[in-house]
Amino acid sequence: MMNDILRDASGHLTISGMRADELAAQYGTPLYVYSGEGFVRSFTTFTKSLSEVDARVHYAVKANSAIGILSLLASCGAGADIVSGGEMRRALAAGIPADKIVFSGVGKTDDEIRAALGEGVGQINAESAAEIAHISAIANAMNLQAPVALRVNVNVDPGSHKKISTGQRSTKFGIPVEDGEAAHLYREICANPHIIPRGLAVHIGSQLRNLAPFEMAYQALLEIADSLRAEGLDVPILDLGGGLGIDYEGDSDPDFAAYGALVTRIFANRGYQLGFEPGRCIAADNGVLLVTNLYTKQGEDKRFIITDGAMNDLIRPTLYESYHRIEPVGPQQTATGIADIVGPVCETGDYLGTDRMMPDVPEGSCLAVMSAGAYGAVMMSNYNTRPEAAEIIIYQGQAHILRPRRTVDDLIALEDNPF
Predict the structure, then answer these.
(1) What are phi and psi of 328, to 5 degrees?
(2) Residue of 210, 102, 97, 231 lying closest to 157 (CA atoms)
(3) So which residues are the catalytic ones?
(4) Residue 177 within a domain
(5) Tens of pLDDT along 87-118?
């Protein structure tokens, strides 16, 4: 694999050369640990795969929004794809220039639009006629022009989980292309004196490992873009979104080369600047969640390994029925039977993994939930008044705290009691 989460010669799990069990002992668990070198390598490899087209790469902040990670990627030339005003603040705080920020999402508030225009973000991806009307009015009031791209819905099923599929007509995303609605709305954008047309955007969903849906979506996007250009309209950018998946069950790397070859075949020498918003494929394999076994309970037909990590720390298994490999951080032992790896939260759905062949896991020993660098820490909560996991990053041989571990007193201090 090209990431830096590996077993050393003695069989211990390491992250960028540092042993996971020692990190757990030093920083406590639950603990997210990221490989800084892995993030850099994934981002640069993705970018290099697009070297034959005019590409601008904006990291999808929603995948992992730690400011330290954003800053590290900014040093590699990354822009940011954001979906909220809060994410914009994070990207700017991390040193990402405003003109390298793309603001996506279906429900931007007037305050968010105003703030984005005030900061000078490079592109706002609009998703409805109503949103465009708000952007235009705000830009007029601010005496400036808003850079707007239109997100289109090309009605392509990505074949991924229904909760992360965004390319079909039945979803809330984008403007349909089949009935001419998208073309009509783009003409209005081009005629609007308060808007600078930036082009068209598409994003059909997340965790795509089959490239065929990308090809269908991109060909449909190119067709409408070429037709609009044939009318004499300005379509400078085609924003191709993100969505490239990873191998949660195995250890193969995302096939950036195949994806880059697909993009090049379709778009090379067509005269468009291309935008990309990778997130999961940059972050997921470069992070692990470390948890400690509190107790082992023998059930009727399997064990329950009860850890201090729960659904509030990593909700993907509960929310998406997703799979993460779970391994002891020490030298690997022979499996002794089926087990569920669960947390302390009072929900039957509070699990990290079910029906896994696991070795004996002593109380107090550490487990690693693999491929947890994306949509892990960003989705944490304080359910059951549980302070969220801490986050650290290993880079150039040093461990750096990204998010310190909070206490229950910290959580209570955030609230006011009017009685």
Answers:
(1) -60, 145
(2) 210
(3) 346
(4) yes
(5) 999 999 999 999 999 999 988 999 999 999 99
Same domain, 138 and 268: yes
Number of domains in the chain: 2
Among residues 157, 177, 176, the alpha carbon closest in space to that of 165 is found at 157
Residue type, 199: G
pLDDT digits (tens, 9 = 90+) for 231-274: 999 999 999 999 999 999 988 999 999 999 999 999 999 999 99
Range of the domain at 334: 5-34+284-413
- Residues 365-393 have pLDDT tens digits of 999 999 999 999 999 999 999 999 999 99
| Cα distances (Å, whole numbers) of residue 154 to 166, 179, 296, 309 | 10, 11, 49, 40
pLDDT value at position 177?
84
In Å, the largest CA–CA distance within the chain is 71
Q: Does residue 418 fall inside a structural domain?
A: no
Give the pTM.
Answer: 0.94
Determine contact, residues 162/171, Cβ cutoff 8 Å: no
Query: Which amino acid, residue 14?
Result: T
Apex 138 CA angle, 137 and 140, nearest 5 = 65
